[in-house]
């Protein structure tokens, strides 16, 4: 079987096109291998480039196992924005990255293997197995079981978010980031920092999980303690991961480090220091003390190993676990009991399930976010392929106005669409019919659609392979190329109907370009790429009178929005991207509307009304403007907009935490969407 790879740099931010040597092939089922169709291969590579460029990451790798058992590993990278280019690094398919909370899948497998050996039971009580003289336990702690830890249902607070035991005026994650990861803490100390707090929820509740890294630090201690009763004697969690998982599966590029090793050949990891929007210092997390992430998030891996692991994790392909234990691992994933990355999820035993917004099918796997790195790995239940996506950058919005916050989940879904898009011969061609003064368009258009008069874009009627209930249709208007325009609104009114989607993937692409008229988004509009605009005046932001933009309730926009001089943006739905506003422009965030922003002003006389939610605030750039706040307004900050640290829980036992924030691995103060629980 042949494994191919590409390392490509998009134009602009991604500067040059180079070829790289592929990683060693992963074993595949016997039989002939069908190469990816040239169109699909090119679309995947272009999408990876656009995702990396549009999110401003320094490097990205993508690995996919197809339904025929063949593997494809792609890589792309850039020098990053000018102010950070000395720190950023491109990625190659052979590069190790920190995989953050994907570590939990390995540690959970070690513990479940010990369950199969009869060394420990899922119902065994944790604090009967491990203890420390310095720990002060509450009564409810004594009822926490191994299964509660594995399924994120212990109720234990996250040690990253609570005051550090050795420097109580700061949280452990704040100290970790302020020292670029060079902070040492024992697992016993990390657990101790959480014990004064009451439960985050009812321990063992099958209908609610509470993401906490403390669960897996404790599981590492449990596994080490239990190993003393097994053949081979007492071993550290790093040795157990090697003995149980990485050794048997020959994952030679994957390890759980236990000390600082300056010679380790893994990629640079960077993030925007101090969490300041649009400015700040890029910090390197390439060399860290792994004791703080530990068995909750310290592992390193390469894309080929991650791909091999997600296959075994989600299928038990090699029989690392008994069938009964594997089925128990998956049981709780069937219950939507919380969220990961803002997406409803079911958390099993060191594995979670989300539903693809494209196909409506189950995705099984895990994400990982640690300062400097972001990654996701999934089995895609719709058609049975497997995928991995890695970034060696973790930043909020940066100085480059052509980028959005990095989001590996959104990137993974974009790559899923690029892979699953039916070949041209299988797609329903687009067709527009005019009746009276109204034109309605249905199908999938891959060429620019010109709109004038009254135009309605309907759902395409095309389905993704493996689609199930809750799937979104193939976009009605779709383009994979730089500088593409999806729809050109020449005059009149344009409506993106509920269920309809317009998507462009490419640098400087525009999903809906407006010469004049009004556009209403009741469906979705997506633009992926560096400088890609979801909604923008065709003649640039300085074009006067380029129309009215409305994001209706239930509508969503993903990408940059340019509001022209004197233009109006009304939001009752969701805008997930920066909003740039020309002189005299107006932005109305109505009740129920959300803008993840920030809103950046490009001229005087801008008026902003906030009755809904504005997450990242306003960057005024020194221009005169007015902000109107109806009664009980959403919180609003002005430039320079700072990412504020999440509120810390009060030390009151056994009361619940005053902040439900679950912060697995994030720079201090990263603002996530309301109610979101990151990886």
Characteristic terms for this protein:
679 residues; alpha/beta; ten-stranded mixed β-sheet; nine-stranded mixed β-sheet; 12 helices; disordered N terminus; disordered C terminus
Describe this structure in words.
By secondary structure, this protein is an alpha/beta fold. Helix content is 17%, strand content 24%. It contains twelve helices and 39 strands. α2 packs parallel to α7 (214-227) and α2 crosses α8 (237-246). The two termini are 34 Å apart.
Beta strand %: 15-25%
Mean pLDDT: 82
Question: Uncertain segments of ≥5 residues (pLDDT<50)?
Answer: 1-34, 79-86, 273-280, 633-679
What form results from the Cα inertia axes? Answer: globular
Oligomer: single chain
Question: What's a concise summary of this model?
Answer:
The chain has about 675 residues and is α/β, with parallel strands linked by helices. It is about 15% helix and about 25% strand. The longest helix has 17 residues, at about 40-55.
């Amino acid at each position: 079987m042949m494994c191919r790879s590409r390392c490509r740099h998009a134009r602009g931010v991604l500067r040059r096109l180079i070829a790289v040597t592929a990683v060693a092939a992963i074993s595949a089922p016997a039989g002939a291998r069908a190469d990816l169709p040239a169109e699909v291969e090119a679309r995947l590579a272009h999408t990876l480039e656009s995702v990396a460029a549009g999110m401003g990451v320094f490097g990205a790798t993508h690995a996919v196992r197809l339904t025929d058992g063949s593997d494809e590993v792609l890589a792309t990278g850039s020098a990053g924005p000018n102010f950070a280019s000395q720190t950023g690094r491109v990625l190659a398919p052979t590069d190790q990255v920190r995989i953050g909370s994907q570590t939990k899948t390995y540690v959970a497998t070690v513990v479940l293997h010990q369950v199969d050996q009869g060394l420990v039971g899922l119902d065994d009580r944790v604090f009967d197995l491990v203890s420390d003289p310095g720990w002060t336990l509450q009564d409810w702690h004594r009822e926490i079981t191994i299964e509660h830890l594995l399924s994120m249902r212990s109720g234990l607070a996250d040690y990253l978010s609570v005051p550090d035991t050795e420097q109580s005026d700061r949280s452990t994650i704040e100290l970790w980031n302020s020292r670029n990861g060079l902070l040492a803490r024992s697992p016993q100390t990390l657990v101790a920092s959480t014990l004064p707090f009451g439960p985050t929820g009812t321990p063992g509740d099958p209908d609610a999980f509470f993401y906490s890294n403390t669960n897996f630090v404790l599981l590492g201690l449990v596994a080490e303690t239990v190993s003393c009763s097994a053949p081979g004697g007492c071993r550290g969690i790093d040795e157990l991961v090697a003995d149980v998982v990485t050794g048997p599966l020959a994952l030679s590029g994957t390890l759980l480090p236990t000390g600082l090793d300056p010679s380790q050949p893994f990629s640079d990891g960077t993030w925007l220091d101090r969490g300041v929007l649009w400015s700040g210092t890029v910090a390197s997390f390439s060399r860290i003390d792994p004791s703080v992430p530990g068995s909750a998030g310290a592992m390193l891996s390469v894309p080929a190993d991650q791909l091999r692991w997600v296959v075994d994790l989600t299928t038990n392909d090699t029989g690392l676990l008994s069938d009964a234990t594997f089925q128990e691992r998956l049981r709780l994933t069937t219950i939507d009991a919380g969220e990961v990355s803002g997406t409803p999820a079911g958390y099993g035993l060191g594995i979670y399930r989300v539903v693809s917004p494209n196909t409506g099918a189950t995705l099984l796997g895990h994400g990982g976010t640690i300062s400097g790195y972001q990654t996701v790995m999934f089995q895609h239940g719709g058609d049975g392929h497997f995928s991995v996506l890695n970034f060696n950058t973790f930043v909020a919005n940066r100085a480059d106005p052509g980028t959005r916050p990095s989001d590996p989940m959104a990137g993974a879904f974009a790559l899923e669409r690029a892979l699953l898009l039916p070949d041209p011969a299988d797609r329903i061609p687009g067709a527009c019919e005019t009746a009276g003064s109204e034109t309605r368009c249905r199908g999938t258009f891959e060429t620019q659609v010109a709109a004038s008069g009254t135009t309605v874009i309907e759902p395409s009627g095309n389905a993704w392979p493996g689609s199930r209930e809750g799937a979104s249709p193939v976009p009605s208007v779709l383009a994979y190329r730089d500088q593409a325009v999806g729809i050109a609104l020449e005059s009149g009114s344009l409506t993106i109907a509920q269920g309809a989607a317009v998507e462009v993937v490419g640098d400087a692409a525009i999903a809906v370009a407006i010469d004049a008229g009004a556009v209403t988004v009741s469906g979705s509009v997506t633009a992926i790429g560096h400088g890609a605009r979801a909604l923008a005046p065709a003649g640039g932001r300085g074009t006067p009178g380029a129309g009215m933009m409305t994001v209706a309730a239930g509508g969503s926009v993903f990408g940059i929005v340019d509001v022209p001089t004197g233009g109006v943006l009304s939001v009752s739905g969701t805008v997930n991207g920066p909003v740039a506003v020309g002189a005299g422009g107006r932005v109305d965030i109505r009740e129920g509307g959300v803008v993840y922003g920030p809103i950046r002003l490009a001229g005087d006389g801008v008026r902003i009304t906030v009755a809904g939610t504005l997450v990242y605030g306003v960057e005024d750039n020194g221009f005169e403007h007015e902000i109107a706040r109806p009664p009980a307004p959403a919180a609003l900050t002005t430039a320079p907009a700072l990412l504020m640290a999440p509120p810390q829980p009060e030390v009151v036992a056994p009361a619940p935490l005053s902040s439900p924030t679950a912060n697995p691995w994030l720079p201090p103060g990263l603002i996530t969407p309301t109610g979101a629980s990151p990886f």
